[in-house]
Write a structure and sequence with these properties.
The complex is a heterodimer of chains A (about 375) and B (about 375).
Chain A lengths: L1 H16 L1 H17 L12 E7 L4 H12 L3 E7 L2 H9 L5 E5 L3 H6 L4 E8 L3 H23 L6 E7 L6 H28 L11 H30 L8 H25 L4 H17 L11 H7 L3 H14 L8 H27 L2 H9 L9
Parallel strand pairs in A: 1-2, 1-3
Antiparallel strand pairs in A: 3-4
Helix pairs in contact in A: 1-2, 1-8, 2-7, 2-8, 7-8, 7-9, 7-10, 7-12, 8-9, 9-12, 9-13, 12-13
Chain B lengths: L1 H16 L1 H7 L1 H13 L8 E7 L4 H11 L4 E6 L3 H9 L5 E5 L3 H6 L5 E7 L3 H25 L7 E8 L6 H31 L3 H7 L4 H30 L8 H26 L2 H12 L2 H4 L11 H8 L2 H15 L6 H19 L1 H7 L8
Parallel strand pairs in B: 1-2, 1-3
Antiparallel strand pairs in B: 3-4
Classes of the chains: A alpha/beta (about 375), B alpha/beta (about 375).
Chain lengths: ~375, ~375
């Protein structure tokens, strides 16, 4: 126990004394925490410009256009007659969609004949497409109901839970923050490895204590970061956090441990500090996608889903969404929580084995390695 | 010309001796493109797990369950007994939504009392939530139309006929994979530029580099960067080609316009990265800045979340990133075709190139000659 405490203190000292580790492990999270949410803070897409091509010129077609303009999602940017001009506006991305009101629209509606509105939406931007689609359908249904004066035989009441306005920031930022924790932790642990001399005092401590000490130090540090991100930054940016503090803390502990041990294992394999930063730049977005936030895991290829189980972020994001955003209990989030402990066990074993191997390696080799520029660079 | 070739040849030998660099240039982007493609394997959101809470338990209510099964987005995975069970199905991630069929559903429907079916869905994941709710709404309204018709009454007077332009099936792979591939390319271009120059400085090999160029600053830089420009253009064609073939995306733009678009994107990304390493003269700082700027660039590109809806800061930041303008070029070049203009995004990329080159211009000779700028990690 005493050894573990010593190693924890040693890890803390090293983090705080080295500029590189201090930057990544302490300042990185704060900087990213403020930077990443910035594009999404308006939450929803409002007033997408839509061109109305009105060939009917009746009170009903004008009413439709006015009601559409009044909807939250779209704004009528022009009312013209030429469809080709309207299509040009969509091609140039000046408009997100077109609503074509055909001749005889009002007459057909009043005669109770089926009347068709044609909508064109820009499918290259899915948010714009879905906003236009939803707005036009809502207005059509509303006007239709007013005219028909009869209720449809059955209706659907949609109840969005946890994110009732369908906010983009509420959806993506929690996932991104978990990812920020993982990525800064991985780079930081790599930098920490580089910061320590090959034959430092740490080598005398048993492997389990070194791993345990680093894990404890980083759990303490990263719980503070998590508190900063999910309590302070969330409040500043007005994002909801529904988790119970204790449950969320207990959930995050194996996430931080698994990530730390993965970081140590990677750092044992690669000695240079520049490779983790490169990897960070490359893997941030794919890691986010692999967790299923942008495109549901149910629709991803099987082998990709298998690959995703390697990353702590996959289960970290899934579980945190349940615990922190939906207010689930640990029992309800037990699947990702257990998966994170399994990862911690596996990565801990690998890291311990690699450390034993390094210590068992003959001194000559370790000398050679410290004078060469490392396995990743060219000879100086 | 010979000097440029000599520098290029030296660069080739250097790349081969630096595993980080050659891995970054080809095997990693290829592997990542395959992973990204695998993520969008399903192309559209379909068969999301949904639970059913049937409080009516009649023949008609079982028909209502089939309305759900007939949608593309939903798939019944469980029947629950009460709202508490429904809630925990969603909370523990087994279902995205619960369809609630109210008591007396059959009777109310028969007597024309217009019963409500409720869909409780998690909108925490808005991609899943929005798709599912829209699909189920469509399913129920189709069913309503059928019921009305069977009763010999007029259906709802206004119908909306939807055409999705440039992406007929609203395919997520079409719309998003190109963004993540282009974002990946931008990271590869940016990081490899910083790395290729940064290692020369860190290893104090700039003098040798200048020697290979026969002492000419211009030859040294052209010989260093031009081979990468060519390589990155080829890599872009390769990775975008994988996207086009894999997801059967029709390419509507003409070859010269596509070529110009790719070149403008590659050069602007290189120029921005060059400024990062020239400005810091430190590989580590350059890489950190490059990963900060290029890593999350896809989020600012306006594809996943529209530029017009961004905050002022987000919008302004996006303008400095080549990817933002490259995505407009990709949309026109691949989806829309030559009828749309590309002058504005090309001009934006040219501006980024010129401004960043102007800012790093005076540093370029110094980096080759001033030992004070060498040896920093």
């Amino acid at each position: 126990m005493r050894t573990l405490l010593d190693c924890t203190v040693a890890a803390f000292r090293r983090i705080l004394s080295h500029r590189g580790t201090l930057g990544v492990l302490v300042l990185g999270t704060i900087l990213y925490g403020f930077f990443y949410p910035t594009p999404y803070l308006h939450q929803v897409v409002r007033d997408v410009p839509v061109v109305v091509v009105d060939r009917d010129h009746t009170p009903l077609s004008r009413q439709f256009s006015r009601w559409l303009d009044a909807s939250e999602g779209v704004a009528v940017s022009a009312r013209i007659e030429d469809l080709e001009v309207a299509r040009d506006a969509v091609r140039k991305a000046d408009a997100g969609g077109i609503v074509l009101i055909p001749e005889d629209f009002e007459r057909q509606v009043l005669r109770r004949e089926p009347a068709y509105l044609t909508t064109y939406a820009d499918g290259s931007y899915l948010q714009i497409y879905s906003t236009v689609n939803r707005s036009v359908n809502t207005v059509a249904a509303t006007i239709g109901a007013v005219i028909a004066r009869s209720r449809p035989p059955v209706t659907l009441a949609g109840w969005p839970l946890f994110n009732p306005i369908g906010g983009y920031a509420t959806f993506i930022v929690p996932a991104v923050f978990i990812l920020v924790l993982q990525q800064t932790l991985l780079i930081g642990v790599g930098a920490l490895r580089v910061a320590e001399p090959d034959t430092g005092g740490e080598d005398r401590a048993p492997v389990w204590a070194v791993l345990g000490g680093k894990s404890v130090a980083l759990v303490l540090l990263y719980l503070l970061h998590a508190a900063f991100l999910f309590l302070a930054a969330f409040r500043i940016y007005d994002l909801p956090f529904r988790g119970a503090l204790l449950t969320t803390t207990v959930f995050l502990i194996p996430f931080i441990i698994a990530t730390t041990l993965l970081g140590i294992a990677i750092a044992e394999l690669f000695e240079r500090s520049d490779s983790p930063i490169v990897a960070y730049a490359l893997f941030t977005i794919p890691a986010l996608m692999l967790s299923g936030v942008s495109f549901p895991v149910e629709a991803q290829a099987g082998w990709v889903r298998a690959l995703a189980t390697v990353l702590p972020s996959t289960f970290g994001i899934r579980g945190f969404t349940q615990v922190g955003e939906m207010g689930a209990t640990l029992g309800e989030a037990s699947h990702p929580w257990i998966a994170l402990w399994v990862q911690a066990l596996v990565y801990g074993t690998i890291a311990a084995w690699l450390m034993y191997r390094r210590r068992a390696a003959p001194r000559a080799e370790s000398l050679e390695r410290s004078t060469a520029s490392g396995s990743w660079g060219i000879q100086r | 010309m010979n000097r440029v070739l000599a520098v290029a040849e030296r660069e080739w030998r250097r790349v081969m001796a630096m595993p980080v660099l050659w891995l970054l240039l080809l095997p990693i982007p290829l592997a990542m493109t395959l992973v990204l493609g695998g993520i969008f394997h399903g192309e559209v959101v379909r068969d999301l797990p949904v639970a059913v809470l049937d409080l009516d338990r009649s023949t008609t209510s079982r028909t209502a369950t089939r309305w759900l099964e007939s949608t593309r987005g939903g798939h019944v995975v469980a029947h629950v007994e009460d709202l508490g069970e429904a809630r925990s199905e969603i909370l523990d991630g087994k279902a995205y939504a619960v369809l609630v069929i109210p008591r007396h559903f059959e009777r109310d429907l028969g007597q024309g009392r217009s019963p409500h079916v409720a869909l409780l869905y998690s909108d925490q994941n808005i991609t899943a939530g929005n798709n599912l709710s829209a699909d189920v709404a469509r399913g129920v309204s189709t069913a309503a139309g059928t019921i009305v018709a069977s009763r010999g009454r007029e259906p709802a007077p206004i119908r909306v006929d939807l055409h999705v332009l440039f992406n007929p099936g609203a395919n997520y792979g079409w719309a998003l994979l190109i963004l993540f591939i282009a974002g990946l390319l931008q990271v590869v271009i940016g990081v490899s530029t910083v790395y290729a120059v940064g290692r020369e400085l860190a290893d104090r090999s700039a003098a040798e580099w200048l020697d290979a160029a026969g002492g000419s600053t211009l030859s040294a830089w052209v010989g260093k960067l031009l081979p990468y420009t060519v390589f990155h253009c080829v890599l872009t064609v390769l990775l975008v080609g994988i996207y086009v073939v894999w997801f059967r995306v029709p390419v509507h733009g003409s070859v010269p316009r596509l070529g110009l678009s790719i070149l403008a994107f590659v050069v602007a990304s290189q120029a921005l990265a060059l400024l990062l390493i020239a400005g810091t003269a430190s590989q580590e700082k350059g890489l950190t800045l490059a990963s900060f700027i290029f890593g999350p660039a896809a989020a600012f590109s306006g594809v996943t979340f529209p530029l017009q809806a961004m905050t002022g800061f987000g919008y302004a930041w996006a303008q400095f990133i080549p990817l933002t303008h490259a995505m407009k070029l990709a949309r026109v070049g691949i989806n829309v075709g030559d009828q749309a203009p590309i002058a504005a995004p090309l001009l934006a990329l040219a501006t980024i190139t010129v401004v960043t080159m102007a800012l790093s211009f005076r540093r370029l000779p110094r980096l080759l000659r001033d030992p004070a700028l060498w040896g920093r990690e």
